[in-house]
Amino acid sequence: MTATATPAAEKSIYRPLELFDTDRLLDQDERDIAATVRQFVDTRLKPNIEGWFESATLPRELAKEFGGLGVLGMHLKGYGCAGTNAVSYGLACMELEAGDSGFRSFVSVQGSLSMFSIYRYGSEEQKQHWLPR
After folding, report:
1. Residue 95 located in a structural domain
2. 118 within a domain of the structure (yes/no)
3. 103 occurs within a structural domain
4. Does the pLDDT value for residue 113 go beyond 80?
5. For the Acyl-CoA dehydrogenase/oxidase N-terminal domain, which residue ranges apply (predicted)?
6. Is the Cα dihedral 61, 92, 37, 132 positive or negative?
7. Is residue 8 one of the residues assigned to a domain?
């Protein structure tokens, strides 16, 4: 048997949980959310991560893109939030983490610390102003 090097672009993308065949446990919405976030990571984040790191920048427009993707506060119900289940939120975070842990941290801190605090303890006026619409 001869081993040959395969360019990185030609290698199949390995997903860590494939070994356990977890997709069979997910419903179609959960699989779709994971696939959507994975595609965003592969097409928008991964090609740019090195450049952003080298220039010590994080484009401000990424926050709006994460919002448009629906991952900010996605586990909250109402106020324009997606209202997904915990599994979907975990899958989205896992896909972001596969690209870069900083992006997963950004999304989970915004959703679970900032937005959840407003959602749970804020006045109606604060919720209307600060949570997605």
Report:
1. yes
2. yes
3. yes
4. yes
5. 28-133
6. negative
7. no
Question: Structural domain tally of the chain?
Answer: 1
Residue type, 93: C
Spatial distance between the Cα atoms of 123 and 10, rounded to a whole number of angstroms: 52
Model confidence, pTM? 0.81
Select from 29, 52, 34, 63 the least CA-distant residue to 100.
Answer: 52
The rounded mean pLDDT for the chain is 87
CATH number of residue 96's parent domain: 1.10.540.10
Rounded CA gap, 80 and 100, in Å? 26
Q: Which of 52, 46, 49, 91 is nearest to 70 (CA)?
A: 91
Tell me, what DSSP letter sits at residue 12?
P
Residue 9: pLDDT band with limits 50, 70, 90: very low
Q: What are phi and psi of 124, to 5 degrees?
A: -60, -40
Q: 96 is in which domain, residue-wise?
A: 27-131
The arithmetic mean of pLDDT across residues 58-68, rounded, is: 93
CB atoms within 10 A of CB 44: 16
Pull the structure tokens for residue 59. 């484009």
